[in-house]
Design brief:
By secondary structure, the protein is mainly beta. The protein is built from three helices and 32 strands.
């Protein structure tokens, strides 16, 4: 009798995927109709919102790739959960080949972190539907971590009755297509904001009630900050009209070891510890959509001019940006299995894995 090898392949993929340090139960979400053949149907879902509702605090949800950018739609999280996707820029033009065997992307439109979601972590997700409003991540609780994602925008929304100041928000190793900031000028304080090793494509805005650090990022547009934010080891790409950093209280003590294409008008003579370098000498045009933001080897200051005498920008520091947002869990980057076999016969399956 000839049998298909599909179920064996799915089991192998699942077995590797679940080897991660997260606690709690592991749930899987996959929109493919054949997903009913999951090894434990009580832990498998076709709809992400249903899986989120079914999950208990501390559970992990593996969000498996979808075939279109609408993906799993929008979800609201009100309990601590871990969501792990497949990464992005995995196949096609501008991609990083060989990072994952499955080159699909785990698409969502919007994530809202509401009260009760403190302790949640999301990794390797693509939250940037090609069109429509209200796309991205909206944060309204403490202890939220966004890592290894590509996101349309990230906003704080802690405003209005019953809301509160936010603490310990970690935005690390992401590509943000548009803006990072807030949706309303009345948002409350954000403290201990850690924003490292990201590229932000739109405007970055902070308020005078915010405190934290912006370190080892690449900023493509204007950054509005106050002295409560430390601004260290970043690359600022944009120089229109005369600056790319608006330092609202005109102090320099919190702005150090960054690269600018031109000096902001409020800089002191000598620019302090910061460097003025034309962007043509910092970045080239070759490389993947995220890899091209690694500084050129010919830019010596880029690789030695940080606060620790190492690389400036998103690929430097203690938590360097990871190409394609590959999460820190074992990934299958090569798989070979015959499409079918005969009952009673042995088959050879080759799986190659690595952890980023």
């Amino acid at each position: 009798m000839k049998i298909t090898i599909l179920n064996l392949t799915l089991i192998c993929l699942f077995s590797i995927a679940v080897m991660n340090p997260a606690q709690g139960t592991i749930l899987r979400v996959n929109k493919q109709p054949a997903f009913i053949n999951c090894t434990n149907p009580t832990l498998c879902y076709n709809d992400l919102a249903t899986a989120v509702n079914a999950a208990s605090a501390g559970d992990t949800i593996h969000v498996e790739p979808t075939t279109n950018t609408a993906g799993y739609g929008s979800i609201v999280i009100d309990k601590p959960l871990v969501l792990i996707g497949n990464g992005y820029y995995l196949g096609g033009a501008g991609s990083n080949p060989g990072k994952q065997y499955h080159v699909g992307t785990s698409y969502l439109q919007r994530i809202e972190f509401n009260h009760g979601s403190a302790g949640s972590v999301v990794l390797g997700l693509d939250i940037r539907e090609a069109s429509g409003g209200n796309r991205g991540i909206y944060i309204n609780d403490n202890d939220i971590e966004i890592r290894h994602c590509i996101v349309q925008a990230i906003y704080f929304v802690n405003v209005g009755a019953g809301n509160f100041a936010l603490d310990n928000i970690r935005i690390q190793q992401n590509t943000v297509i548009a803006d990072f900031g807030f949706t309303n000028t009345n948002v409350l304080a954000v403290t201990n904001l850690l924003m490292t090793n990201n590229r932000i494509g739109g405007t970055t805005s902070a308020k005078n009630s915010w405190s934290g650090i912006m370190r080892n990022n690449v900023f493509a547009a204007t950054v509005n900050v106050f002295s409560g934010m430390q601004v260290i080891d970043n690359i600022f790409q944009w120089s229109f009209p005369t600056h790319t950093l608006e330092e609202n209280d005109n102090t320099m003590g919190n702005v150090n070891y960054n690269i600018f294409p031109s000096a902001p008008s409020w800089f002191p003579s000598g620019n302090g510890t910061n460097h003025i370098i034309p962007m043509a000498s910092v970045f080239g045009s070759a490389g993947s959509d995220d890899g091209k933001y690694q500084p050129l080897s010919t830019c010596n200051i880029c690789h030695t001019g940080s606060s620790t005498a190492s690389e400036i920008g998103m690929f430097g520091g203690l938590t360097p940006y990871t190409l394609s947002g590959i999460p820190e869990v074992p990934s299958i980057y090569h798989l070979f299995a015959p499409p079918s076999g005969y009952q009673g016969d042995s088959i050879n399956v080759t799986i190659s894995t690595k952890t980023n």
